[in-house]
Design brief:
The protein is mainly α. It is 75% helix and 0% strand. It is built from 16 helices and no strands. Helix 2 packs across helix 7. About 2% of the residues have low confidence.
Length: 397
């Protein structure tokens, strides 16, 4: 059975599981335990996969610098362009449909504590270890580039380890529906119990629909010359998009993402390996746009018409800027960007409860858009550099 179908059924069963057993005491313990186990496991897998695959990709691109540079620049252009585009579009949608999310604004020491904890106390986190793994992979890959026959054995070993990692992701992705089932049940529980309501929901969902079905496809059309169908590509990315949405983080989607881009989109391994890592920093359009909406909701409220586009544009651009470093706070990217943007704009306001009740929905939508954007970035490189093969529907996983 195809992963996209298996994952979809698993999510639907997870929702039904909540409505059948959500009131039992063991439900929350079970779903939370699975989530607490899977996120560290996903983080470890992320480190292993990134190091092995990026080492081989760096070695390959070091030998063919022209292709590596083009891949890097195309991914950077896509990431930066879509991030700014989505953030500005979020400001425009908000200006058209102004709304407010209730928020309180505490003393300055809350912001100081938040920023300090986010930056300093995460130094030993898996995410920062991943950054170290990226640096080590780039250095190792450049060192083992096949410039002479003496380096051929170690280069072959690096490629073999990369192939093993992709095979590991493929094998694990066939069983990823099981944790996804519990993630879906937990997400439903949090969403229902939070009782999110308000006129801001209409604004938020309209933007999400515009971003997924309008802006990302148009950006894809523009950069590929209207030669390929982006909606088909996004459908093929569904096995990676669902875990991102339900977990609110791309970490849990690492295994299905590498498998989906490689086997459903047909992108070369070295291109997938580089664009996946680069997109984790630069293709954060979903996080930047949702942070723009969140910041506007708590800053302006229904008075956005008085602020005008000139008042909203700095918010969008500052959120785009700080999205580059939001990977330091997986799962808290929206609040991270918002706090930094407010600090940069000179506002002493830091939104806290009850506005944070909406953050799970923001985080899930942002992660879904980020995953789609990262997958399309890899496909953009594949199309423009002819670095991939066409995968027939019968061969999809």
């Amino acid at each position: 059975m195809r992963n996209w179908l298996t994952y979809s059924i698993s999510c639907a069963l997870g929702v039904a599981f909540y409505f059948l057993f959500g009131n039992y005491p063991w439900f929350g313990v079970l779903t939370t335990a699975v989530s607490d186990i899977m996120m560290p496991v996903s983080s470890v897998l992320l480190i292993v996969v990134v190091f092995t695959t990026l080492t081989a990709a760096a070695a390959s691109f070091a030998a063919r610098r022209d292709i590596g540079l083009k891949t890097f620049l195309l991914t950077l252009l896509w990431g930066a362009g879509t991030t700014v585009l989505l953030s500005v579009a979020a400001a425009v949608v908000y200006m058209t449909m102004p709304a407010a999310v209730p928020a309180t604004f505490p003393l300055e020491d809350f912001r100081t504590t938040f920023l300090t904890n986010t930056i300093i106390l995460r130094v030993l986190s898996f995410r920062n270890i991943t950054v170290a793994a990226i640096a080590a992979a780039l250095i190792t890959g450049c060192a083992i580039r096949p410039t002479s026959s003496i380096f051929s054995p170690i280069y072959d070993i690096a490629n073999s380890l990369s192939e093993v990692s992709y095979r590991l992701c493929l094998d694990l992705s066939r069983f990823w529906w099981l944790p996804l089932f519990f993630m879906s049940a937990k997400w439903t529980s949090v969403t229902v119990q939070t009782g999110i309501s308000g006129n801001w929901i209409s604004t938020f969902f309209i933007f999400a629909l515009i971003a997924v079905f309008g802006l990302l496809p148009m950006a894809y059309f523009a950069i590929t010359g209207f030669r390929h169908n982006p909606y088909s590509r996004m459908f093929r990315l569904l096995p990676a998009a669902l875990p991102s949405f339900l977990s609110g983080s791309s970490v849990f989607a690492t295994v299905p993402f590498y498998t989906t881009v490689r086997n459903n989109l047909g992108v070369q391994k070295r291109v997938t390996s580089l664009t996946a890592v680069e997109s984790a920093f630069f293709a954060k359009g979903g996080s930047a746009a949702c942070a723009t909406l969140f910041t506007c909701f708590v800053l302006f409220g229904p008075s956005s018409l008085q602020a005008g586009f000139a008042g909203l544009l700095p918010v969008a651009l500052s959120c785009s800027l700080f999205s580059v470093i939001c990977s330091m706070a997986p799962g808290s990217e929206i609040l991270f960007i918002s706090v930094f943007a407010l600090n940069y704009l000179g506002s002493g306001a830091v939104p806290v409860s009850p506005a944070m009740a909406a953050l799970p929905l923001y985080a899930g939508t942002a992660a879904l858009i980020n995953t789609l954007s990262a997958g399309l970035a890899a496909d953009v490189c594949s199309v423009n550099l002819k670095a991939g093969t066409f995968v027939y529907r019968k061969d999809m996983i």
